[in-house]
Fold these 2 entries.
Entry 1:
Amino acid sequence: MAYLHALREFTARLLGQVPASCGLCLGSAQGGRLCGYCHRAVTHSMAQSGPRCTVCQLVLNGAGICPDCVQHTPAFDRVIAAFDYAPPGDLLIHRLKVQRQFISAGMLAGLLADAVLASTPALHADAVLVPVPASRAALLRRGFNPAAELARSLARKLRRPCRPELLLRTREGVKQAQLGRIERARSVQALYSCPPRVQGLHIAVVDDVLTTGSTLHSIAKAFKAGGAASVWGLVLARTPYPADGLAAAPGPDPRD
Ligand SMILES: [Zn+2]
Ligand SMILES: [Zn+2]
């Protein structure tokens, strides 16, 4: 097994040196990564947009925690995101999820690995990576689970274990993209469960996009109920709120 692992690492390093096309502009780039220009364009807002919520990475007018995380304390501890879900990074997500270019998962996992390695505070040294499970309908539609592909590749890059078996989907649920904010929160209630082997574990949940945080909250609740020591979210992209959307949703806590 050690031999196979070393061979895979060596091949990946070799392929990384081979010139190929940029995943965004199709210009020349090493090993299918983004060219320098596109890399800056995709990651620019995350690096330059100013203060963010220290929990969910939402852009804020000042330092601290966003109104949502103050009013409805999420069950997850922290989020790391590689870029904002905005042009041109959203196109990369579209190509992965809608155009089913699962081959780009490795390049995207590289962007997320960079964000994880640059994170302060750092991801726990013993954190195990767990992808968000796809619904059966999404698996049949795409033929693969984007979060699982990301998690596998990210685990290799970060040299962490990937443990998809630690998170199960208990039912199919409703397609999230068709729902509003509060409906999203309600639709993911008790959608996930974890086996009783997570006691004391530091969990890093891997997903492609964080929008309202309701999915990550629901998953973190299940892990924390199972005794997990911490739950972080590692996502490719963080959806910014609309300009007038910073206020928390009215009414009862939509996450419970
Ligand atoms: Zn490019
Ligand atoms: Zn927040």
Note: The chain has one domain: 51-238.
Entry 2:
Amino acid sequence: MPCTAKKHEIRRDGEHASSSGVYDVDLVLTTRELARLILSRGLDFASLPESEADSPIGEYTGAGTIFGVTGGVMEAAIRTAYYGLTGTELADPEIKLVRGMDEVKLGEVDVNGRKVRVAVVHGMSNAKALLEKIKSDKAAGKESNLDFIEIMACRGGCIAGGGQPYGTDDRVREERIAGLYTDDEKSAKRCSHQNPSIQKLYKEFLGEPLSEKAHHLLHTEYHQIPLYKD
Ligand code: SF4
């Protein structure tokens, strides 16, 4: 994982993180820890034989890949929302408006004739400024004109998360972002709903998107926690 927060998240919300009776995730390794593990075991990836990734986690789509960049979660969600609304795939799955390193990206995305007003921010100070604006608008009796907000705590998104290799600057961020978009572009499947494992999960267990079970198991709540334990 690019994110050190995942180490905390696998043990939070007892009920949600262990709905099967055992914890869903045993252990979280950050990207940095994985790299150290690979080095310490002397693994030379270039000389390893090709093999299939384990299922179900091995199957992924371009939509999953771009979750790692600012704007990527929104772009992936819009691709699938469009399919959900129309039954057809977006002619061009690339939502350029939500891409790039601008600190706040605001605009309208046309989803089958409906203008969806979006805001994408990354970096906590930008998130704070946006949330304060929404709060003050609300206090002044003004309705927020936004339909869909994406916030990523790390500048550039998870490609620059706390568990990533040290020495991340904007040049490195841009290179990692370009790498993820290239991977998405080359993916045969670029939308979450095209992932066979996801389709099977809904068919055999969750029912349909937004079902009661899906809502209960795939959503969470946030509350303030102290920085340090007493
Ligand atoms: S943006 Fe940063 S804090 Fe948020 S999930 Fe990604 S790595 Fe973790």
Note: Strands lie at 104-111, 114-122, 148-152.
